[in-house]
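Dataset card, provenance and construction

Sequences and ligand SMILES were collected as paired inputs. For each pair, a complete structure of the chain with the small molecule in place was predicted and serialized as structure tokens. The example below shows a pair involving magnesium ion. Curators did not alter the output after generation; any descriptive sentences attached to a record were derived from the structure itself.
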Amino acid sequence: MSIRMDAVRVRLGDADVLSDVSLSLDARTIAVVGENGSGKSTFARVIGGLVPRASGDLSVLGLDPRTQAAELRRRVALVFSNPDAQIVMPTVAEDVAFSIRADRLGAAETARRVSDALERFGLSALADRASHELSGGQKQLLALCGAFVRRPELVIADEPTAYLDARNARLVADHLFHDAGHRLVVVTHDLMLAQRCDVAVLFEGGRLAAVGEPGEIVARYEAALGC
Ligand SMILES: Nc1ncnc2c1ncn2[C@@H]1O[C@H](COP(=O)(O)OP(=O)(O)OP(=O)(O)O)[C@@H](O)[C@H]1O
Ligand SMILES: [Mg+2]
């Protein structure tokens, strides 16, 4: 089972933001949907090991984020909406290389991995450009490139297409879905994107409302929204 939760509760500030979440998910691609403030990002951050649970049991790729955080960080990559917050190095190629610095691959192997990854994301021509000069869409592709160059087993993406135009949103989504080498958890308000997943999870008011076939979950969610 890639994600298992048993009565997980998450407290932020003085409120329970997730309550009594129990689920077992083994699908390769998982969509997370729900209204603003329903707890989706908190769910993504808990499974990514960024936010601790207050109680309950949790396992991600067979690991407990509380006690096996370093191993989890090695095997999971996180992608967020705002690419500016994810880019740390001055140039495009340096930024991608930074993602695999901990692997100590040596200069030649690092350069080869970076060059392959840039090629795959259509960024080769921009390798020496200043990262901050890229457009928003190019920055998000760079963030994705930095995530995938690490060859993660699980990619957790929180609204990865939120600020992108239709073309870049499709490009980013295609990268997230096309490579069969990783599992994907994608939090999204794009209900078409959600329906590309194998399974969908619906949150309501910090609680798990439903898990199931994405078409059915999206229909239930739209009915709840009254649209
Ligand atoms: N650091 C925090 N301290 C206190 N409350 C928080 C904190 N972060 C989030 N919350 C609250 O937790 C609830 C769930 O937030 P979360 O970000 O998980 O929602 P979301 O479903 O991702 O919403 P959106 O669709 O708007 O991104 C909200 O009511 C939010 O105000
Ligand atoms: Mg959110």
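Derived descriptions for this record:
The chain has a mean pLDDT of 94.
The beta strands are 3-12, 15-25, 29-34, 55-60, 76-79, 154-158, 183-187, 199-204, 207-212.
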